Amino acid sequence: MDDMQRRAFIKGAAIGTLAFTVGGVEVFLTPRLARAQNLPLRTLNPDQAATLDAMGEALVPGAKDAGITHFVDQQLSIPAEDALLEARIMNVRPPFANFYRAALGAVDGASQAKYGGRGFAQLAAAEQHDFIDLMRQNKLENWKGPGSGFVYFLLRSDAVDVVYGTMDGYAHLGVPYQAHIAPTTSW
Amino acid sequence: MSNEKVDVVIVGAGASGSVFASVLAKAGKKVVLLESGPDWQLSDLISSDIWGRRVKPAGPPFLFEGKNPYGYVYQSGWGVGGAALHYFANFPRLLPNDFKVKSTYGKGLDWPIDYADVAPYYEKVADDIGVSGDAKAEEIWRPAGKPYPMPPMKTFPGGEVWKKGFEAVGMRLAPGAVGINSTEYKGRPACIYDGWCHVGCPIGALANPLVTYLGDAKKAGAEVRAHSTVTRVLVSADGNKVTGVEYYDAKKEKQVQEAAVVVLAAWAAQNPRLLLNSAAGKHADGLANASKLVGKYLLAHFASNTSALFDEDLQPYMGTIAAQYYSYDRYDKNSYKDKGAFGSTFMVAGTAQRYSALGGVANARLDLFGAELAAFMKRAATGFTRLTAFAEEMPLLENRVELASDKDEFGMPLGKITHGFNDEAVALFNANFDQGMAIAKATGAKEAWPNKGPMPTIHLMGGTIMGNGAGDSVTNSYGQTHEIPNLWIAGPGIFPTSGAPNPTYTIFALSQRGAENLAKNWGTVAG
Ligand SMILES: Cc1cc2nc3c(=O)[nH]c(=O)nc-3n(C[C@H](O)[C@H](O)[C@H](O)COP(=O)(O)OP(=O)(O)OC[C@H]3O[C@@H](n4cnc5c(N)ncnc54)[C@H](O)[C@@H]3O)c2cc1C
Ligand code: SF4
Question: In chain A, how long is the greatest CA-to-CA distance?
Fold first, then answer.
């Protein structure tokens, strides 16, 4: 598909779902379903995915099952022009995958340095909490990557997106979504 | 590839370009708008904060430096409609003291025109595209004029709770003037208060360019070419006129569009980048740059937000993203002189809240995460409201757009935006938090807190300022460049000072005034 055709295709597709690959075929699913079906990731490696799952969940409870990792991974695999990530509007320079690889690497590196070789996903809940509290204030030692406060801001925003930025999220908060053009799924 | 010569080529199909297109097409001119982004339709405006990011640029063609780097992408538009496809349609106006800052206060700059020159155009815009508000109520702050064509919008508890706080500190509020229909207007429906304005109103209740100026322009024969990115304005051999523009089309092939008049309407950052990149012949420093002021005096607003939580259900999910109430009671530029501040403040209260994304409720407590954030979200879902104090900085030469050495995909140098707020602006930012907290505490809110973080940069003005001559400015008050009569600049870039309110009502008014002047003087202007 050339660029313009693909764009038209995306526009016409069930809005609210994202394209994932199942057995070599593109299917449209919500990130939550993609996660539930354990679909293969396209961009992030298993370590990065584990870190993002753990970080997402620690930032916003529910983010892991809501599919934060499948959401971000899928978004990183499409052209920046089509991406829906907060990174897009915060002046991050495409390809956004570079930012996420650096950010997730910095999280794990700083965690390993602080907790005797254990990555962020291996930390106990209280340790994760302390780590994030320092991270958001740019106070972590051995942080090597984009500013830790900015990484906190963007990953937290991704987690908020999948938990609260959806029709399900509004329902969970008990407030009406009232869409003009409703996403055709709960995404 | 070359295209048939047209009367006018307009670079950018956003707020200002659409007004020029409408006025000139209706005057019988052959108009082409070149727009770098997609050809958005109302049906693209999905009610979702996640999908709403699609209508912004992906990767800014700028680098950012300075003490307060400019937050470009969030503030900008991309595609037909420009940023006004997804603006909030707050329609406050400048006040008389904004036009003579230098002569009144001895700092900043003067405009070459007065409030009285712009006021009739505010009224014309209101009638043309529909504004809801209460002009009489505003006249405590400004000269009297015509009523708005529609009554004010409905209010909700999230706005009404601020009335008590303002009263307690002796400040006044008036219903916000907005470019949104409180009643049906010219065949466009009334608003239904569902709070999705900021990702685009697909029913046309909000005056975005698609349903107003651009729609009119197309009806009058204007052509819009999307996915067309202009990289240069072309100049005649003698350098006395421009002859058209060079652009890259959807297939990324180079094209030339010749025109008798070129209007740059690509917003306050891109217009100077294009002028600087078009240096040729006697315009070695860039077009219209004898003053060396192309790209200088860039202006951003900043805002001090105060949040409040109530136990009652304020229905924060209802309303528009534009404000229900506003106040010019701290508009005197010396309102907080005792605190070392200078500049006007414009306060707005009561907007519909969204729960995710940059302006969402979750970001009102950026320090919270995990279980604490979840608990906060539950309480805030119905009890949250916020007060915003917009304020102005004075024009500084060092706040600027320049060309960088890195290039974009078309080989055009990236721009570099350097921006920092001075001490008086920082003092105003702080003073507005103190004022906001005094008001919030007096509302009887259960909790109130200042959203104090790094100073945000909001809107963008300046960079190609208007003035009396080529010695101290880039354009005249109509947007015509002093040096090249058939090269015009539209949009907030021509503001020499910004005032504190949102700029687009003034952009529409100035564009209407400029385009009418261009049409009237066509015979002497066109090249
Ligand atoms: C989230 C948000 C909320 C806002 N809310 C308000 C509000 O409530 N009230 C208010 O007054 N203002 C508001 N604004 C500001 C308002 O949208 C802008 O002031 C206004 O749109 C600027 O008009 P413009 O014509 O200069 O630029 P735009 O409307 O942005 O149009 C410029 C167009 O030029 C195109 N372009 C850029 N470079 C090129 C190129 N090289 N070639 C071809 N095309 C190009 C862009 O893609 C864009 O479509 C808001 C803005 C944002 C982002
Ligand atoms: S609240 Fe009103 S103006 Fe805003 S999107 Fe809904 S109908 Fe349109």
Answer: 52
Is residue A179 included in any domain, yes or no? no
A103 to chain B, any CB pair closer than 8 A? The answer is no
Average pLDDT along chain B: 97
Region label for B107, one of left (φ > 0), alpha (ψ between -120 and 50) or beta (otherwise) = beta
Residue A12: predicted pLDDT: 35
Range of the domain at A56: 43-173
pLDDT of residue A13: 40
Cβ of residue B229 lying under 6 Å from some atom of ligand 1: yes
pLDDT in tens, B217-256: 999 999 999 999 999 999 999 999 999 999 999 999 999 9
SS (H, E, C) B350-389: CCCCCCCCCCCHHHHHCCCCCHHHHHHHHHHHHHEEEEEE
Domain membership flag for residue A7:
no
Domains held by chain A: number? 1
Q: Is the pTM of this model over 0.80?
A: yes
Domains, chain B, in order of start with CATH, read 2-56+77-525 (3.50.50.60)
Domain annotation covers residue A14: no
Evaluate whether B267 touches B76 at the Cβ level (below 8 Å).
yes
| Among chain A residues, CA nearest to B372 | A60
Pocket lined around ligand 2, Cβ cut-off 6 Å: B 180, 191-197, 201, 203, 205-206, 320
Nearest to B355 among A152, A164, A183 (CB): A164
Mean pLDDT computed over B493-497 = 98
Q: Which ligand is nearest to the CA of B202?
A: 2
pLDDT of residue A183: 66
Quick check: CB of B209 below 6 Å from ligand 1? no
Ligand 2 atom nearest to B319, measured from its CA: 1
